[in-house]
Write a structure and sequence with these properties.
By secondary structure, this protein is of the alpha/beta class. It has a domain at about 30-85 and about 120-135 and about 145-235: Rossmann fold, CATH 3.40.50.850. About 20% of the residues lie in helices and about 20% in strands. The protein contains five helices and eight strands. It has a six-stranded parallel sheet with strand order 5-2-1-6-7-8. Strands 3-4 form a two-stranded antiparallel sheet.
Length: about 240
């Protein structure tokens, strides 16, 4: 399924029944010990997606304490930032008569239109001030091509333009990624699924994420992730440093 069809297809999939029935693998608390071949990916914990931001995700601030607590358990940490130009193709304001959360057709498929958010160089695009991941080695900025969106940390929306993250991780011997951040049903989900596509084992740490949930998009994203082999866990499943 094309990533930009997610919002429109969620209702058709009949996924309004919640996440508990999705059948993800369960883990005993503290069972997973990340090692040198694991990386924590912190997706878009930026002011634009936090309380008072231009595209605030409900409960988004709650992930910060969870991520901060997880970070010491990981030797390898990557952070991503949404980094849009003014007048970006994903902004509803770019199109006459369009409103946020409607869609339009672009060269790579159906694009959800968002409020202006995470514009390059603004405080809105900065990482949340309370996020504490001092050992992060890499920041991946995405969505900076004016005519193309990018939810995934691994590739742009055309499914051709790589960000370089896969090569970076493989060069360091990383085999497994643990994905956290915002929002579960968009940038987190596509990052996790593209990690699987690139050959990594992928986990989403559910309580370290929050979703937007447009027309059932959150449940649809979990179902897609499961189908791609992404595992859903909780922060308690990670053995503390």
């Amino acid at each position: 399924m094309h990533r930009r069809t997610l919002v429109k297809s969620a209702a058709a999939l009949g996924l309004a029944g919640g996440l508990g029935s999705l059948g993800f693998n369960a883990f005993a608390a503290g069972r997973i010990k990340p090692g040198a071949k694991a990386a924590l990916i912190v997706v878009d914990v930026q002011n634009c997606f936090l309380d008072g931001g231009t595209l605030a995700v409900k409960g988004g601030n709650e992930v910060i304490a969870v991520i901060n607590a997880l970070a010491p358990a990981f030797e390898n940490i990557v952070v991503t930032q949404d980094w849009h130009t003014a007048g970006h193709a994903s902004f509803a304001s770019t199109y006459s008569g369009k409103k946020p959360f409607e869609t339009t057709k672009l060269s790579y498929g159906t694009q959800v239109l968002w409020p202006d958010h995470c514009v390059q160089g603004t405080d809105d695009a900065a990482l949340g001030k309370d996020l504490k991941v001092p050992t992060a080695q890499l920041v991946i900025r995405k969505g900076f091509h004016k005519d193309m969106d990018s939810y995934s940390a691994f590739e742009e929306a055309d499914h051709k333009t790589a960000t370089g993250l896969a090569g970076y991780l493989k060069a360091r011997g990383i085999k497994t990624v643990f994905v956290t951040g915002l929002a579960t049903d968009f940038c987190v989900a596509w990052t996790a699924m593209d990690a699987r596509k690139a050959g990594f084992e992928a986990y989403v740490i559910e309580d370290a994420t929050r979703g937007i949930d447009l027309n059932g998009s959150l449940a649809a994203a979990w179902k897609q992730m499961q189908a791609k082999g992404v595992k859903r866990i909780q922060s308690a499943d990670i053995q503390a440093a």
